Amino acid sequence: MENENKTIETPKKKEIVFSAIQPSGTITLGNYLGALRNWVTMQEEYDCIYSLADLHTITVRQNPAQMRKNIIEAYASVIACGIDIEKSLFFIQSHVHTHAELSWILSCYTQFGELSRMTQFKDKSAKHADNINAGLFTYPVLMACDILLYQADKVPVGADQKQHIEITRNIAERFNGLYGNVFKIPDGFIPKNGARIMSLQDPTRKMSKSDENVNGCVHMLDTPEVIMKKFKRAITDSEACVRYGEGKDGINNLMAIYSAITGLSYEQIEHDFDGKGYGDFKTAVGEAVVEELRPIRERYEKLIKDKAYLEECYRKADEIALKISSRTLSKTMKKVGFIL
Ligand code: ATP
Ligand code: LTN
After folding, report:
1. Which of 15, 117, 173, 329 has the CA that lies 20 to 30 A from 212?
2. pLDDT band at residue 81, thresholds of 50, 70 and 90?
């Protein structure tokens, strides 16, 4: 027999990747460079599961009609970034009931003290002082459940989510310590470049979907003209020298964006723009962003017209996500002592 002396290699099981994004507004350059770009590249090497975290979105009050629109637009935007729905799962969180169910259970294994230390809770409750609801407080538990239900190995996110990954690991380790190995302990996957893109108008604050200052935030679907205008108006400093350094938050941010897109090091950027002013640099960054986002916007324009196709995509994915996550939910419930 021809194969007798050959060792037959069984294909290695791929690691699982999970991540989610809130449909809380138009996706930003920060979302893209911090998270979505990795979602796309990781599809080659991993089994990827992605979700639209719409349950998380209602921790901040939403207008119902606008929310429905945001959900469909965010779903189309993520696919437009390059998510291949034949290869990866991309489902809608609220359609998969296991998330809310596990969230109740794990909230009983999460301490008030540890939730009180979450900086996102502190920031958002300062920003929405009239609506500091319990959901805003228990937000990280639901996020932990998103990840743990799929036994994820890696979670691609921006730097602002580091603390949430940490609490996910703590909750999982605590539960495993009590009941045996129920949950895989996940690792965050945070990019070296672009992990924390700042507002163009206030470079001490992160660029955010829900920012009121429209000029601070580049949206993935902004036209080239709008993108160029936003970069030209970006806040810088009076030194007029393209150099990374302390007290130069605006330029540091533009360099981070430029480096994340072109792959150039900071030294190389400083060298290339030596003797040139901020105007030239802002134009170069704007143009790089325009070209990066152009194909995404074009794909989006086609996708958003085909609502039936989008629905077919998420219905299929919702069903598979329910099957996978139900296994973890049942196991967890049995361990705790529920009768199934
Ligand atoms: P919101 O403004 O509603 O809080 P957001 O813009 O912070 O939303 P999320 O949906 O919470 O966006 O985040 C989606 C992903 O994008 C997360 O992985 C998050 O870490 C990443 N991300 C968000 N903002 C930035 C940013 N400014 N730079 C890098 N990554 C970011
Ligand atoms: N909280 C996240 C969105 C999110 C998420 C998740 C990210 C909800 N569930 C699970 C990674 C894994 C945020 O980006 N603000």
Report:
1. 117
2. very high
